[in-house]
Automatic annotation (TrEMBL):
Lineage, opening ranks: Bacteria, Bacillati, Actinomycetota, Actinomycetes, Pseudonocardiales
Gene: cbiE
Keywords: Cobalamin biosynthesis, Methyltransferase, S-adenosyl-L-methionine, Transferase
The protein's name in its UniProt record: Precorrin-6y C5,15-methyltransferase (Decarboxylating) subunit CbiE
Organism per entry: Saccharopolyspora hirsuta
Source organism superkingdom: Bacteria
Leader sequence residues: none
GO annotation, biological process: cobalamin biosynthetic process; methylation
Domain named Tetrapyrrole methylase: residues: 11-178
InterPro entries membership: 4pyrrol_Mease, 4pyrrol_Methylase_sf, 4pyrrole_Mease_sub1, 4pyrrole_Mease_sub2, CbiE, Cbl_synth_CobL, Cobalamin_biosynth_MTase, SAM-dependent_MTases_sf
GO molecular function: protein methyltransferase activity
Pathway in which the depicted protein is active: Cofactor biosynthesis; adenosylcobalamin biosynthesis
Alphabetized Gene3D superfamilies for the sequence: Cobalt-precorrin-4 Transmethylase, Domain 1 (3.40.1010.10), Methyltransferase, Cobalt-precorrin-4 Transmethylase, Domain 2 (3.30.950.10), Vaccinia Virus protein VP39 (3.40.50.150)
């Protein structure tokens, strides 16, 4: 059995495709691809579910030839992986990927663009990458993970969406909309979305596709001097290091930094690839926070207001850091649906109630008291220890 996968992008079929189709015993593909390209004599199997197609291809005898029709470059988020997983070796005749086509229509280079695939299951992760990164293409999946759902998830972030429908087809349309508008519209399929922080930005040429990797070269748990802060209102680097380890920020996740102060935790989470929302009631802190995010080149959504009230309308987080706030804030955070919650406490009297609030909400809870003493130089060149105020970190992981 020989199988050829042919990519289709709305233009001419790739070189050699006509011969492959002519000799095919079985042609597998979506309805519109079969209608347009499958020859009369071949058996046709419409996708739908992949399993029956894989069975039919596997059942071809030694001298029979099968063709799979797929969109764009079938080796890119396409049929080739599923075939190989089933042990079906194939040759591939690729066309232009929908990502290439979209970026060509926009007239923008895409070596810095992150590409994510959104299924219903992965939609939240895909949206969080759009919230965190300045340029992201989302491969949509109808009907539950399309432009409307992505627009709805990006409302509240400064983003512009370019939505392309039926690229290369008779109903091709490429429109630029804001997320709120995208959320309201009905979109034709197939479609694909480009999410941009700045439509006109021309990013520097990088060295790795998809933008700079995380963690950044400058490391993490940065010294306090890296952040603008007031009166020492900042989570110290050593405490931040442990908090970040417990929060596990990474691409695809959303972190709330509640009572954010300088926003050092939110900024560090964003530097590690997570989407971040900083909640801060003090206007001066909020302004500083915006400056801190900008100076570290990351996007942190700042919600100026009082927790717990302001938390109600925020999208569901994967992890929450509570840097300050009363027991009502801890209780609200414990019930926000995050997999991880970390609370920093200076007041020992609040340890038991915080632990209890997290336990009651279904978390496995642990706690640690952290007291770092840094080396400080004395005038004669010798050293002494300079103790920072001790902090208790209570951290909860949602029970599976
Ligand atoms: C499963 S992925 C496959 C990607 C494909 N291998 C490629 O290289 O383009 C399918 C994604 O491409 C989009 N797509 C495929 N053909 C398209 C078209 N003609 N116009 C817009 N989006 C398209 C789908 O909506 C979905 O987001």
């Amino acid at each position: 059995m020989a199988v050829t996968v042919i990519g289709i992008d709305g233009g001419a079929l790739p070189k050699g495709a006509a011969q492959e189709l002519e000799s095919a015993r079985l042609v597998v593909g979506g309805k519109r691809h079969l209608d347009a390209h499958a020859p009369e004599h071949a058996r046709k199997l419409e996708l739908g579910p992949l399993e029956p197609a894989l069975n039919a291809l596997s059942a071809l005898s030694g001298d029979e030839h099968g063709v799979v029709l797929a969109s764009g470059d079938p080796g890119f988020f396409g049929a080739v992986r599923a075939l190989r997983e089933r042990g079906i070796r194939c040759s591939v005749l690729p066309s232009t990927s929908s990502v290439q086509q979209l970026m060509a229509r926009v007239g923008r280079s895409w070596d810095d663009v992150v590409v994510v695939s959104a299924t219903g299951q992965d939609l939240a992760r895909a949206i969080n990458v759009c919230r965190a990164r300045p340029a992201v293409v989302v491969l949509t999946t109808a009907p539950k993970a399309g432009p409307a759902q992505i627009g709805s998830g990006l409302t509240g972030w400064r983003r512009t969406m370019v939505v392309a429908e039926d690229l290369g087809g008779p109903n091709e349309s490429v429109v630029t909309v804001d997320p709120a508008e995208a959320a309201k519209r009905t979109w034709r399929e197939p479609n694909i979305v480009l999410s941009l922080a700045d439509l006109d930005d021309v990013p520097h040429r990088g060295w790795i596709a998809g933008g700079e990797p995380v963690p950044p070269a400058t490391g993490w748990a940065l010294p306090e001097e890296e952040f603008s802060h007031r009166d020492g209102v900042i989570t110290k680097a050593e405490v931040r290091a442990v908090a970040l380890a417990k929060l596990a920020p990474r691409p695809g996740t959303l972190v709330w930094d509640v009572g954010a102060g300088s926003g050092s935790v939110a900024v560090e989470c964003a530097r590690l690839g997570a989407a971040a929302i900083a909640v801060e009631s003090d206007e001066a802190h909020a302004v500083r926070l915006i400056t801190n995010a900008a100076s570290h080149g990351v996007d942190v959504r700042v919600e100026e207001g009082e927790a717990p009230q302001v938390l109600r309308d925020l999208p569901r987080p994967d992890a929450i850091f509570v840097g300050s706030g009363g027991s009502d804030v801890v209780t609200a955070c414990a019930h926000a649906g995050a997999a991880r919650v970390v609370v920093a406490l200076a007041a020992l009297d609040r340890v038991a109630q915080t632990r209890e609030a997290l336990r009651t909400a279904g978390y496995e809870v642990e706690g640690v008291q952290l007291s770092a003493a840094r080396l400080a130089e004395l005038p004669d060149g010798t050293s002494r220890l300079e103790a920072a105020d001790p902090v208790v970190l209570i951290s909860g992981r949602k029970k599976p």
